[in-house]
Each structure stands twice: as C-alpha cells, then as structure tokens.
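About this split. The held-out portion is used to measure sequence recovery: a designer receives only the structure tokens and must propose an amino acid at every position. Recovery is the fraction of positions where the proposal matches the reference. Here is one held-out target exactly as it appears in the evaluation file.
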C-alpha cells in the first residue's frame, strides 16, 4: 500500500513532537510539561485534575486522561480525533492545514487513490477487471470504516488487558467483523478501457474494499466500495452478475439464527421440547454498508440493501421476522431517509411491515456538521457524537407502526371465545404507538398565536389544518384500507382516548411556508410546480419540491409551461422596448386595454373621416394593442410604458418576499386628467387585484369606510399566510399615511378576545390600494413608498353623457374573468402570463414607473381643489394679462373669495394653492429674480381697496409696501409691470411690447 507523503512522523516533526497541537487545544499546557503535574482536560467537566502530559523516548508528546472510562495515552493526532470527532485521516488533514504542513493541494489529495495507466496486455479484454487483495486491513482503513465510539466500546470490552494487548484485540475484532460481512481490503484494482490498463491503488487514507457475495443459483458478484471517493456516484460499482434484490447480511443472519437454534437444541431438557424456538434479539435493516458494519461491531445483527433501487420484499420481511424477535430500521434524518422509511413501514404489501420498529436518531444530531460541513444525519454520524450506550437506549424504545395489540379472547374457563362460528380476538390500542403513528404520518400541532394551537397534517410538502375528528377518521380509514377486522374498527369507534386531550401530546411543528426568497417565487399547481426566477420559469415535479405549502394554496389547475409571451428590454438611453410574442391571454389583453390612455383619439377622433366599414376594419385589426396605427410614436410609447408598468406591479405583488429597499404600496388610479369632481369608475382597477386573488391569499378592505382604521381589530384576520392586503376604492379622505407603517415595519394584529400579536415585516403582507383620487401628499416621502399604476378610461360606466357609449370588459371578452365559463386553456394562458409578470419583476434591477404626468395632474387638482382651479383658470386666462407681472396678493385673495363664495382663507393656504396651480400649469411662482433676501416678494405701490357698493377696486393717494406674487410663463423674461386692478382688462394683443432698453412699457 502506498503511503501518503505527509506521515505522522512529518506531523510530529513539524509540530515539536505534537506539543504545538496540544497548545492549540490546551492553552496552559506548557505549565505541565516535564513536571508530572496533573491538569483539567478542557473537554471534561471535572473539579479534580486528572490529565497528564509526558514526552516519550522518541521525543513526541502524549496526553492521558486518567478519569476516562478507558484510560489511554493519546498522541497529538489521536487527541485531535477526540476533540474534532473525526477520523484519523481527517485529523491529519486538519492538523496539516492548521499548522501549514504541505500545500492545500497536497492536503486535498490525501483522500485520493493513486492512479496509473499502462498499455493493456494482448489477452486482456476491454471492461475486464483485476483485483489485488491486501494481506491485512490496515488500522488507518479500519478507523475510516468504524466510528471512534465503536473503538471505545470494544476497547472497554477488553479493558482488563494491557494497553498493547487491548489495542491488538480491538484490531482483531474489527477485522473479524469485516471478514464475517465478506468485506475484503484491496491494494488495487485495474480496469481495461480502450486498450489501456488503468490501475487505482489504495493509499493510507483512501481505502478500497471488495464485498464478495453469492446470489441466486450460486452466481458470484462483487461490490467495489471506495468510501472516500470525492464523487458520490463513483463510491461503488459492481463486478459480476449483480442481483439488484440481493440483501447483504442475510446469509450471516441466517447462520447466526441457525447457531442459536442449535445451541438451544443442544442444551434443552425434555420438558422444554415443546417450547417455542429461540430467535435473535433483533435484526437491523440499515441504509448502507457503513452503518451496518458499525452496528455489527457493537453486536447487533444487520442486513442492508445492495443498491439505492432495492426494495425490501414481503417475503424478505417475513423471513427476517422468522429469525428475530424484532426487525428494526435506523433511517437517516434527512427528508429522503425519513420518507423511504415511512413508505417501508407503512407498506400495504403485508402487515409484517407495520411491525418493523424504527430506531429514532435524535434530531439534535442535525445541528452538528460532518467533515463536508453538512448536517449530520446517519448512524455513522451519531456514533461520532454519542456513546454506544446511547444507541442501546434508542434500540430499547424503538417503536413499530402497528398501534394496536391483539390476542385470542378466552372465557373464564380458559377456552377460546367463539362468535358466529369464528374465534374472537381482543384488541387494545397503545396510545403511545398511536401518537407515534400519527407523527410518522405527518400529524402535529402548530402555534397560531400565543393563545391558540391548531392541529395540522403534513403530507409530503402539503400542509392542511385538521380537527380531532379528522385525525380519528384518518386512523379509521387507514385500517379500512388494510381490510382490518370489524372488531378492531369498533375499538377505535368506542375509544375515549382518541380526543383533543390525547392529541394535545402531538409535537409542535413549525413548517416553513416560505415559498420564496429574495430571487425566487414558487407557484404550486395540481400537476406541477413552477420555480420562477429572473432567468426563467423552471417546471419541477411535485414529488421533488421541498417547499412546504398550505393545501389551500395549491392552485386547482393543471398547467403546462408556455414560451415567453413578451420580452421587455431597455436600451442605453433608458428607452423601453416591448416585444409581444403571444397575446392570447385574456388578462394580458385586459391590461393592454387599460393602458390605452389615448383610445378616444385613436378610436374616435382619428376615425371620423373614415367610412363605417373602414372604422370597423380598423377597430378589429387593432382590437387588443397599445401600438395603434394612427397614434404618434410618443403616444404609443406612453401606452407601452403603462403596460410594462402594470405587468411589473403585478409581478411585484406575486413575489411574496419583502425587502426594506422596496417597501411599496401598489397604488392603482385612473390615468385620465380630471377636469371636474366627477369620478366615473369602472376602469378595471379592481380586476387587476382580482387577478392577484387568483394566485395569492388576498384580504380585501372597503376603502369607502371612513372609520376603517378606527377599529382596533381591523387587522384581526391578517396572519403570516396573508399575501396581500387590498384596500378597494379608497375615498379622497382615505388616511394614506396610516398605511406607510404597514409597508416598512411590523403589523400589529389585535384579534377580539385574544392577545395582541405582531407580524414581522418579512412575514407581513404587501399592500395594494385602488382609488379614483390621487394622494393628497405627493412629496418625496410618499413617492418612494408608492408604486403607481394608471388605468385609462377605455372601460367606463358613465351616466352623465360624457362618453358616446359605455364599455366594460365583458363587451371585449364575452365572459367574466376567471369565472366558471373559463376554459382550461384560458386558465393556462393567464397563469403563464402572471408567472411571466413575476419573472419580469425578478429580472428588473430597478422599479418601472408609470408615466406620471396625468397622475400628478390629478393629485395637484385634488389638492388645490376644483373651486380654486376653476377660479384660477379664469383669473389667469390669456385675456386677463395677469401672467408675467406682479399682482397684489390681497387683491387676488379677495377676488378668489368673492368669485368662489369662500368666506375665509389664510394667506398661507392661498399661497399653497398657488404653488400647486403653478406646478400644474408648468409656471414658475415667484422666481428668485423677484424675491428679496428673505424670499418674500414686496413692492411699494399704490394702495388699493375694494368698493363693495360699486363692486370695483379703487386706488388711494398713498403708497404702501405690500406683498405681491409673480407667475412667470415658460418663455417670458421678468417684467417690472404691476397689475393694476383698477384699470380695465385689455387684450394681450393691445398690450405694448416691452421697451428693450428700459424693459418697461412702450406705449404708442
């Protein structure tokens, strides 16, 4: 066997005889070197020092813990094994890396075979294999196969021997286990491939074993096992006529059973001749050979499958029960191991499967890590961290799935009871096994809040809430499915132990329902699952999905994934481009129609000169589009961006993940400029959120309820399962600011009669609002919290005669959205489109904003008020000549009060409205050139007052410094002109052109 170049001598030479290694684990070790003074081992909780260090004749240091059960000296390498819970070779690698012995590449190569290649001999055939067996299994290879706790257990068995004899006895015992199980060490094996003889040679820390077996009809085959192969698929391969249903260890179990029977026959008295034959105490069905070897070394009888495709048959289970009092399994703790064991023990092939007992490894084991950094999960890992006695206790309490016992019923005379010509059996439930069976079948409890627990059932990745009567029904249905006798069913019917009180002993489960992360969203369907990322949509079989999901969230549709319906790109100038590949989705078409903000121009104004047939043909050709032919490029682009924005907003709501950087409220409002106080509605904003309702858990509130937030229990129905809170048709007075905390912080839930709780930001729902009114506050704080989408009034319900016709979605589509009239194909199209909207959101690094001009106009109009807008439109009309000049503030305010019948308004309130009007009309209020140092606009000018009797303004004889304002149009320069309210209004054409030299009036 080739030796790796980093030997233990190399380790000791590089670490001062191992002293540097001990210094790493025992900080004050130098105080005890050469002094025969005891110290406290850091791994043990002891008050009396019981450990000692000394230097051997070869110059290396060793440590001994005299308080240990099996007291022995440890060199620095074996001490590292003890502290790191690892194998000998792993300890070498840890030390080499920690103390810089050898390069990283050299350290990694420790667990690699030596590979060589030569030309094949003429008589050697391709795929032929040759094996060179080792004379003896080395200690380093034994330590790779057998856990340190197994070594400790066997050492304890030989504790009365001297250390050298004890060590030799341990090696002999472990080698005997390998021989009994048909495991043989190889020095090398050679495979002939493409006329090359490729040889793989074992190294000190890379063992190769050959498991030789005899299958049916005496056919021989071997399993070559390389436990340290970096690639899992290369850890074993077969040679010879492999039997996929071969059960390793069965021949050994059979031989042990026959020996027990023989020993019994040889020792029994005549009086014992009628007694039942003895059996083995247990046979443990292991998941693999490594677990089996460790269990066998501890004295248990074991069998294990020949491959991962092996299935334990009814006949094999029957034969195992013939030979043992108990047949057990010890499944891995990962989901695959638990599921496979559950299917085995619950198999309906025979009731014998129900009698298989499961050795339950502690869940705490998964908090520890193996050499690859993965959670520990199997028996081999268990025996690194727990003692053999701990395993013995687990074996002692292992339970079967059968949750009832039965026996023949006897009368008082000891005769079997007979009813209707058949013997009667007595049945008795074991409540502990009932609970065990229910736990294995996925039943448990879930904490809803501080005061409420609910029963749940987890089936694969599906979770459903259940009631105690549902749990009892599950047990009855299980028995009926296995054709259980009527008497057993009646025992369940009559049992008073199957109640809330007993089921309260079920464990508390905390399933993780996060079907998302920052970059991913899952959608669950009856026939498949979609995994949505920015890169695309992946289809995953439901059986392979590891995400927990409420059964109620499984979309009751069978879908098939379609090619992308659209592609959104943006060029270097930040111009959006939309390519539509498939617009068959009704919901896609609906979003197009609600994005047609220029529909009146396109479908009414621009078609006036066409004939009726030409109008019909154009409308049919452009029925569902945002790029109508008779619109300008700018108008088409606006509509494209509106559509992309809606798809993006929809995708945002579909993605359940909440990020502090995107705490948005999706705010849907009409995109048509509002010239009066009318609110026509029916534009389709609610249908947008009904689409979300089809794929998400949406909770709706009435936005017209002025006292919505006055209710302390308003959010009592909100929980971590709520995806979206939707406030429908909010009024102008809706307190928008009350929703901000919902988007950036936790949500307080105060159910009636229960304790107030809080839903964390990450688990709280997203928020959507629809309204016919813009928010009052359009400042930066508000704008960064709102993701607007605007809907045109293409769909409208109007009783005022403003439109030529009413139009609703049903007029375009002939059916209600997502109603019973929807076909499977229509569902599939819409669901694909919705998923692709989510992909759009996940793929886009920044938000996609709607064209904001009309939305801003509505906000400005709402906030200044329609009365002020109506007054200002007249007051600043072209005929008034009141633009680009100074206007006395008190004159304007009085005029507004008189014309609008307003009794009182403060100068602050009036100025605020003036700012909104200027912003709406793209005018500049009080440019800096007219302001003084403190920002005010003051002029010394004639004092004017209003004569109520004559209804006119009168100028007095004295001058007065008074407040004024100046409204500058976009292309005008600053003028010194002061508007005189006492003068009659003259037209713009009659007004003199300013003198270029004086910038003053140039009267003729």
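Reference sequence for scoring:
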């Amino acid at each position: 066997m080739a030796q790796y170049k980093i030997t233990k001598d190399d380790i000791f030479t590089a670490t001062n005889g191992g002293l540097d290694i001990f210094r790493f684990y025992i900080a004050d070790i130098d105080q005890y070197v050469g002094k025969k003074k005891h110290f406290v081992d850091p791994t043990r909780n002891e008050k009396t020092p019981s450990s000692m260090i000394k230097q051997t004749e070869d110059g290396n240091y060793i440590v001994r813990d005299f308080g240990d059960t099996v007291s022995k000296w440890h060199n620095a390498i074996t001490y590292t094994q003890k502290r790191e819970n690892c194998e000998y070779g792993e300890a070498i690698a840890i030390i080499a890396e920690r103390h810089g012995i050898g390069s990283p590449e050299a350290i990694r190569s420790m667990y690699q075979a030596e590979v060589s290649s030569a030309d094949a001999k003429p008589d050697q055939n391709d795929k032929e294999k040759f094996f060179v067996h080792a004379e003896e299994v080395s200690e380093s290879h034994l330590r790779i196969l057998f856990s340190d706790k197994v070594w400790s257990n066997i050492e304890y068995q030989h504790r009365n021997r001297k250390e050298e004899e004890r060590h030799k006895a341990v090696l002999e015992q472990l080698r005997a286990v390998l021989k009994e199980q048909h495991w043989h060490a190889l020095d090398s094996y050679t495979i002939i491939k493409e006329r090359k003889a490729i040889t793989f040679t074992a190294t000190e820390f890379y063992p190769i074993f050959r498991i030789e077996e005899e299958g049916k009809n005496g056919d021989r085959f071997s399993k070559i096992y390389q436990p340290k192969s970096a690639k899992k698929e290369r850890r074993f391969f077969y040679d010879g006529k492999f039997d996929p249903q071969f059960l390793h260890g069965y021949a050994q179990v059979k031989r042990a059973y026959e020996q027990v029977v023989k020993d019994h026959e040889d020792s029994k008295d005549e009086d014992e001749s009628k007694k039942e034959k003895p059996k083995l105490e247990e046979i443990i069905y292991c998941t693999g050979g490594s677990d089996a070897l460790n269990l066998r070394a501890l004295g248990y009888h074991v069998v294990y499958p020949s491959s991962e495709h092996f299935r334990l048959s009814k006949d094999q289970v029957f034969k195992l029960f013939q030979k043992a009092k108990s047949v057990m399994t010890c499944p891995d703790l990962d989901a695959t191991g638990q599921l496979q064991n559950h299917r085995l023990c619950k198999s309906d092939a025979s009731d014998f499967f129900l009698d298989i007992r499961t050795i339950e490894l502690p869940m705490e084991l998964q908090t520890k890590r193996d050499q690859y950094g993965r959670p520990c999960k199997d028996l081999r890992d268990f025996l690194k961290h727990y003692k053999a006695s701990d395993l013995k206790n687990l074996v002692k309490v292992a339970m079967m799935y059968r949750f009832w016992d039965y026996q023949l019923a006897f009368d008082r005379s000891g005769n079997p009871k007979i009813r209707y010509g058949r013997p009667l059996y007595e049945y008795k439930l074991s409540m502990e096994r009932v609970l065990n069976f229910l736990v294995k079948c996925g039943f448990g409890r879930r904490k809803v809040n501080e005061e409420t627990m609910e029963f749940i059932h987890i089936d694969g990745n599906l979770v459903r809430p259940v009631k105690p009567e549902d749990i009892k029904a599950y047990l009855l249905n299980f028995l009926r499915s296995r054709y259980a006798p009527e008497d057993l069913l009646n025992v369940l019917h009559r049992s008073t132990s199957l109640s809330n009180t007993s089921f309260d002993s079920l464990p508390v489960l905390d399933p993780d329902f996060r079907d998302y992360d920052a970059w991913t969203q899952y959608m669950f369907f009856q026939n498949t699952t979609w995994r949505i990322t920015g890169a695309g949509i992946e289809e995953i079989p439901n059986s392979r999905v590891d995400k927990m999901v409420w059964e109620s969230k499984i979309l009751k549709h069978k879908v098939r994934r379609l090619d992308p319906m659209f592609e959104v790109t943006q060029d270097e100038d930040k111009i959006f481009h939309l390519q539509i590949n498939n617009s068959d989705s009704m919901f896609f078409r609906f979003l197009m129609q609600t994005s047609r903000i220029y529909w009146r121009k396109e479908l009414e104004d621009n078609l006036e000169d066409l004939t009726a047939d030409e109008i019909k043909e154009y409308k049919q050709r452009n029925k569902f589009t945002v790029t109508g032919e008779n619109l300008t490029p700018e108008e088409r682009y606006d509509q494209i961006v509106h559509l992309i924005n809606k798809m993006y907003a929809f995708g945002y709501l579909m993605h359940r993940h909440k990020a502090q950087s995107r705490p948005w409220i999706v705010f849907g409002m009409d995109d048509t400029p509002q010239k009066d106080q009318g609110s026509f509605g029916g534009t389709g904003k609610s249908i947008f959120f009904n689409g979300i309702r089809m794929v998400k858990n949406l909770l709706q509130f009435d936005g017209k309820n002025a006292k919505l937030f006055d209710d302390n229990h308003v959010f009592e129905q909100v929980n971590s399962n709520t995806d979206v809170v939707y406030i429908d048709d909010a009024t102008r007075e809706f307190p928008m600011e009350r929703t901000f905390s919902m988007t950036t912080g936790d949500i307080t839930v105060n159910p009636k009669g229960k304790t107030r709780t809080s839903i964390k930001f990450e688990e709280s729902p997203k928020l959507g609002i629809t309204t016919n009114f813009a928010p009052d506050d359009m400042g930066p704080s508000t704008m960064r919290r709102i993701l607007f989408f605007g809907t045109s009034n293409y769909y409208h319900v109007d009783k005022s005669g403003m439109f030529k016709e009413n139009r609703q979605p049903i007029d375009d589509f002939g059916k209600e959205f997502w109603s019973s009239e929807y076909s499977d194909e229509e569902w599939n199209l819409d669901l694909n489109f919705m998923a692709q909207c989510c992909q759009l959101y996940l793929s886009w690094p920044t938000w996609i904003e709607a064209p904001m001009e009309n939305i801003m106009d509505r906000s400005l109009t709402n906030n200044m008020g329609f009365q002020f807008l109506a007054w200002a439109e007249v007051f600043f009309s072209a005929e008034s000549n009141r633009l680009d000049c100074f206007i006395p503030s008190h004159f304007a305010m009085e005029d507004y009060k008189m014309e609008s019948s307003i009794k009182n308004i403060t100068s602050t309130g009036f100025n605020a409205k003036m700012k909104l009007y200027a912003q709406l009309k793209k005018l500049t209020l009080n440019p800096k050139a007219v302001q003084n140092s403190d920002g005010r606009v003051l002029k010394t000018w004639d004092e004017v007052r209003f004569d109520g009797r004559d209804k006119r303004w009168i100028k007095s004889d004295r001058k007065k410094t008074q407040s004024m304002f100046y409204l500058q149009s976009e292309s005008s320069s600053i003028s010194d002109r002061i508007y005189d309210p006492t003068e009659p209004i003259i037209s713009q054409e009659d007004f003199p052109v300013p003198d270029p030299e004086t910038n003053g009036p140039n009267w003729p």
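Annotator remark: Residues 244-402 form a domain with the Dna Topoisomerase Vi A Subunit; Chain: A, domain 2 fold (CATH 3.40.1360.10).
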